[in-house]
Amino acid sequence: MTSVSDILRTMxxxxxxxxxxxxxxxxxxxxxxxxxxxxxxxxxxxxxxxFGVFNPATEERLALVAQGGAHDVDQAVxxxxxxxxxxxxxxxxxxARHLYAIARHLQKHARFLAVLESMDNGKTIRESRDVxxxxxxxxxxxxxxxxxxxxxxxxxxxxxxxxxxxxxxNFPLLMLAWKLAPALAAGCTVVLKPAELTPLTAIAFxxxxxxxxxxxxxxxxxxxxxxxxxxxxxxxEVHKIAFTGSTEVGRMIRRASxxxxxxxxxxxxxxxxxxxxxxxxxxxxxxxxxxxIWFNQGQVCxxxxxxxxxxxxxxxxxxxxxxxxxxxxxxxxxxxSSDMGAIVDGVQLQRIGxxxxxxxxxxxxxxxxxxxxxxxxxxFPPTFLENVPxxxxxxxxxxxxxxxxxxxxxTLDEAVALANNSRYGLAASVWSENVNVCLTVAAELLxxxxxxxxxxxxxxxxxxxxxRESGFGREGGREGMHEYLVPKWLRTASxxxxxxxxxxxxxxxxxxTAALAAQPIDRSAKFYIGGQHTRADSxxxxxVRSHGGALLGHAGLGSRKDVRNAVEAAxxxxxxxKTSGHARAQVLYCFAENLAARADCLVAHLRAMDAIxxxxxxxQFEQVLERVFHYAAIADKNDGSAxxxxxxxxxxxxNEPFGVVGLRSxxxxxxxxxxxxxxxxxxxxNRVVLIPPAHTALMFADLSQVLxxxxxxxxxxxxxxxxxxxxxxxxxxxxxxxxxxxxxxxTGAARMRAASAGNLKSVWAQSRHxxxxxxxxxxxxxxxxxxxxxxxxxxxxxx
Length: 799
Ligand code: NDP
Fold this sequence. Notes:
Helices cover 43% and strands 19% of the residues. By secondary structure, it is of the alpha/beta class. It is globular, with a radius of gyration of 28 Å. NADPH dihydro-nicotinamide-adenine-dinucleotide phosphate is lined by residues 166-170, 193, 195-197, 225-226, 229-230, 233, 244-246, 249, 252-253, 268-269, 301, 348, 398, 400.
């Protein structure tokens, strides 16, 4: 007879199948055919087209599902639009009741939904039952809370409006929950497009919405392919797009939505490092790899797909990992003993196979777990490629399969450099028993989420989202709520237009300068780059005129080269991010002091530029000083928080500066607006390349002399003038500029958004008229939030 110790030694379990019967009954009851869910009911697609949805483990067709076209999307958006006023007016408490009811019903039907998810996606029942469903339920409970607290926690904000949400196939129901819960809590209505490969749990969710009495039109679900998603993105009455999926499609969506001021959040791909130091608990780290890359067959955007292991333990670690791999069971997703299920689709399976085969053909050491050839279905064994060069495609490209590569490192600095050697920046795992090492590395990593001695931890209370080409925006927690809210004042603000006097009229040849004869000494404003007053690389200049057209002087005409020089100088000033908030505050106070000493000069500039009275110019200057004091005060108070996540973790939400930020400031109240934008960026540790309006060049040249004497480190703030939009576009296109703030006309905003699609930087484009004298519009939380990206660091406690 087999003893318990025999079982433990062999780890042999018998099959433990979950029954598909309830799902098959449900599919049969609907004739294995589903329409779109629009305005509270299921409707046939306008064009009458359906596509097949298959079980990836058996290749059986589960159902036919409606193919959404432009007309279906129009109908769904119309329903969401119609439902919006009443849903928003319902108030936080009533919406909280609806969200609570959804959470309860998800819980009641959790087993059914888990089985359906496993059959549709191929993930193991253990994962759909123990991870996807509990997290989805938790998301609705958590956001029922935000709905209840909306008025008190976000008093100056309101719902953004109708949201178009597009989700991928790897966590179909969980991604739906991540998208829908905050939107509904904020008071938005939604049109959601599930992935073509996995629409079934979204359809079951739609039925659940009917069951809990959610008002018709609040949630609409249109099934279909990429074209259906593209219709939704382009729809003019959608106010916000939330997308999770590939970086390539993220880029397409950025481009397609560039000419509108739709809010956009993108949660894209990753190539996350899994860093193991020589003092790590190696067995725990090996188990961490299992959770990291073999969870959901590696089809996880934040999968730790690059192991970086300290060379002194690389051999031991590799041997243990290879042994562990042999114990993983790949098989029937509905078998509770399976560790890995099926790959979502044959195309995906083929892609994974080709990438591994290419690595093998090049002679890379490749280890694979056991896989009994299945009779049917799309299965791939756990795979480990050892000592892969850092630049190899297998180490750089997102494979989205159960493939992990490893490479060695010697020092902490080398580990950080290798970890950050990626265009992505979604997540990272750090393994060491030394808390100093863990937190030092966590601070250096360019990633939105860092797990210390853990992997793939999620909770509704913690924000999730990436740096760099992993996208922008956060899902979950307080930071995630902001993705579905807008400041109330912005709703009624008029479109921003810039006066003719702010436009640049460069001249390639000398103009008569008789008007300058009135000036004591000829003036030619220089840029401020890396703490130096620099001439234009182009060798050209432009005339700076007063509001009345009088020639005041000339300024260097900035070009691409000057902007690039400014970005380089800003990069060299990286120490600014590391100085304490207190030290940054001292520099800003010093700046205020020196600014006050130049009051007469700056007031005279304000008068000349805007033809305002001395009293009005003096008032504006006083407001400038107050704003500098405001951000000096904030510099050491822009605290993060510790999120109350479910597991035994201190989950730190750190407000990190982006790095080098480009800023195009508007013509209105030119000094006050430029500083209202520059100061929050500087206060939290960013370095700035500022493009002020061309007609203010002389004033900003004088301002740079104030910077010289104010202990602002060289390169922390750089100023270039010229054609504002041309120069801002250079910043948008520049791969080493992490974020761009564009405050200017709508045409320019569209240009910047489109230009940033290649590198997917975060662009905050604001084309509404702001009252720069009103603190509720011109300073505070909204600016600080856009000045930072939140990094969530999960630190475990307990033994
Ligand atoms: P996609 O990015 O293509 O799909 C994600 C969602 O976007 C799906 O609903 C898709 O519809 C939809 N979509 C596709 N094209 C457009 C478009 N032009 N406009 C609007 N919506 C669109 O991912 P795939 O499913 O094709 O997977 C490809 C690769 O993407 C994977 O191998 C993986 O590397 C990565 N990926 C990353 C994910 C992540 O979480 N970061 C998730 C999924 C994939 P449809 O399903 O019909 O194509």
